[in-house]
């Protein structure tokens, strides 16, 4: 009986912990600050990484394969159209779309672990390049459907790459 | 008590199966290892529900089927927490619930490196009848598991287990090494163990179409694990060791199947351990729970 009670207690503790994390609401301004911090990570890519060219740039299947991978791994955080979601920033912002393919590949490989973006090096290198192909194919979205307007210019995202 | 606990285990199994059939899920990209860990953590907010079985032969006793459920939750991008429920059936003997484990893995470095360390901390509250062999430590040998369940259940272990996971991925190959140190919270010495593994997907590029039998959905490899004694008798003397080819099949329908055939490498080891597992990852579980309680994420 003691194991039963202990198992239930641990399960309840885990549920409470996950609830506490999940209930932690973030006001829109905070979200924009957080997005800006994530975009700022792009500027930290080493020069060698930035200079890398996408080896699948001319692969006709790369964008379609990248779209599959994106739907499987990225939409939960970045939204179905990469317009940004609950956890992740828009990938159609200028900061991302103007970044070199090598920079995006570097972010995918290294994540932004302290800001919630996991490391995606578990996807083999060609699959990460396929994702880069798809993301770059999206282009900049002038107005993203369903996106919240920036709270004010002071908290708007900086453009670390320009 | 045993019947009650077995009911608990199978009730949780049933509920988990229901949850796993919920529509929102993520295509898994899971490693094939069953004992060894790599450095990849669960994505934040995702819950992975896993069921595993170990079928083992036993010299001087009856063969057994041990099983466990895992609930793996990505608390953050650098912290994964996991809860286990263990049970086993020994042929010609009985079925027993053997305890629970609570495991946490913490990523140390914020960027990807050649070798990536992850710290693993686990609390175990298990009976001596536990036979899932999720890790092999100290002087664990086959004969430890030969007694009837009614005897093995008398032994109740509270244990803390620490691992340093060192793992890296290069050109599609994952190489990982786990060093284990476990301390029974009663007056027992530290025990040590190891696990190493290597794996690679059959294809590195994804296909443009979703498919079940594409080569990139299959990850194959091998793992080796065993005990390293205790501080008074460190080394390979009176320890057991296993070598197991492993394969994972990551289905586009969001399920992952794993299979491992383990072979004992010395006379102290079970001759054969057949393991298999099935898992499903539920995307945004944290958000779903939050919405259930009125949150907005």
List the helices and strands and how they pair.
The complex is a heterodimer of chains A (162) and B (297).
Chain A: H1 2-23, H2 28-42, H3 47-50, H4 62-73, H5 75-78, H6 94-97, H7 101-110, H8 125-138
Chain B: H1 2-20, E1 47-56, E2 64-76, E3 79-90, E4 95-107, E5 116-127, H2 149-152, E6 156-170, E7 173-184, E8 190-201, E9 218-227, E10 229-230, E11 233-234, E12 241-250, E13 255-264, E14 272-282, H3 285-292
Antiparallel strand pairs in B: 1-2, 1-14, 2-3, 3-4, 4-5, 5-6, 6-7, 7-8, 8-9, 9-12, 10-11, 12-13, 13-14
Structural summary, described in words:
The complex is a heterodimer of chains A (162) and B (297). Chain A is an all-alpha fold and 162 residues long. Chain A has a single domain, classed as Cytochrome c-like domain (Cytochrome Bc1 Complex, Chain D, domain 2), CATH 1.10.760.10. Helices cover 52% and strands 0% of the residues of chain A. Chain A has 8 helices and no strands. Chain A has helices at residues 2-23, 28-42, 47-50, 62-73, 75-78, 94-97, 101-110, 125-138. In chain A, helix 4 (62-73) crosses helix 8 (125-138) and helix 7 (101-110) crosses helix 8. Chain A is globular, with a radius of gyration of 18 Å. In chain A, 41% of the residues are buried. With 297 residues, chain B is mainly beta. Chain B has one domain (2-292): monomeric porin ompg (Porin, Beta Barrel). Chain B has a 12-stranded antiparallel β-barrel with strand order 1-2-3-4-5-6-7-8-9-12-13-14. A two-stranded antiparallel ribbon of chain B has the order 10-11. In chain B, strand 12 (241-250) and strand 13 form a beta hairpin. The radius of gyration of chain B is 19 Å and the shape is globular. The model of chain B has no long low-confidence stretch (mean pLDDT 91). Classes of the chains: A mainly alpha (162), B mainly beta (297). At the A-B interface, helix 1, helix 4 and helix 8 of A face helix 1, strand 2, strand 3, strand 4 and helix 3 of B.
């Amino acid at each position: 009986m003691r194991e039963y009670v202990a198992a239930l207690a641990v399960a309840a503790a885990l549920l409470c912990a996950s609830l506490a994390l999940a209930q932690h609401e973030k006001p829109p301004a905070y979200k924009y600050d957080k997005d800006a911090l994530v975009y700022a990570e792009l500027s930290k890519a080493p020069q060698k990484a930035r200079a890398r060219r996408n080896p699948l740039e001319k692969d006709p299947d790369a964008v379609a394969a990248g779209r599959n991978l994106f739907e499987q791994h990225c939409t939960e955080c970045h939204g179905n159209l990469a317009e940004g979601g609950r956890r992740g920033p828009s990938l159609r912002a200028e900061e991302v779309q103007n970044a070199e393919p090598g920079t995006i590949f570097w972010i995918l490989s290294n994540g932004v672990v302290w800001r919630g973006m996991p490391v995606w090096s578990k996807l083999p290198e060609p699959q990460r390049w396929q994702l880069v192909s798809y993301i770059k194919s999206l282009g900049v979205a002038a107005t993203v459907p369903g996106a919240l307007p920036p709270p004010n210019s002071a908290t708007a995202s900086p453009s670390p790459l320009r | 008590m045993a019947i009650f606990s077995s009911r608990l285990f199978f009730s949780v199994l049933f509920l988990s199966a229901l949850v796993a059939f919920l529509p929102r899920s993520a295509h898994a990209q899971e490693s094939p290892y069953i004992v060894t860990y790599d450095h990849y953590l669960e994505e934040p907010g995702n819950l992975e529900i896993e069921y595993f079985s170990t079928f083992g032969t036993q010299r001087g006793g009856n063969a057994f089927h041990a099983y466990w459920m895992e609930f793996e939750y990505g608390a953050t991008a650098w912290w994964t927490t996991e809860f286990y429920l263990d049970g086993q059936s020994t042929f010609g003997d009985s079925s027993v619930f053997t305890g629970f484990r609570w495991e946490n893995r913490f990523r140390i470095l914020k960027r990807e490196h050649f070798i990536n360390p992850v710290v693993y901390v686990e609390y175990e509250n298990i009976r001596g009848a536990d036979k899932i062999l999720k890790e092999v430590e100290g002087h664990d040998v086959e004969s430890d598991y030969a007694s009837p369940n009614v005897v093995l259940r008398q032994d109740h272990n509270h244990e803390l287990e620490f691992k340093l996971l060192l793992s890296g991925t290069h050109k599609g190959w994952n190489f990982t090494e786990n060093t284990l140190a476990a301390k029974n919270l009663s007056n027992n010495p530290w025990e040590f163990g190891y696990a190493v593994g290597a794996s690679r997907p059959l294809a590195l590029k994804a296909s443009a179409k979703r498919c079940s039998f594409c080569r990139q959905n299959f990850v194959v490899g091998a793992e080796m694990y065993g005990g390293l004694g205790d501080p008074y008798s460190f080394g390979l003397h009176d320890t057991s060791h296993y070598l197991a080819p492993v394969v994972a099949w990551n289905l586009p329908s969001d399920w992952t199947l794993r299979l491992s055939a383990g072979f004992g490498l010395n006379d102290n080891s079970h001759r054969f351990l057949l393991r298999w597992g099935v898992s499903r990852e539920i995307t945004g579980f944290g958000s779903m729970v939050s919405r259930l309680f009125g949150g907005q994420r």
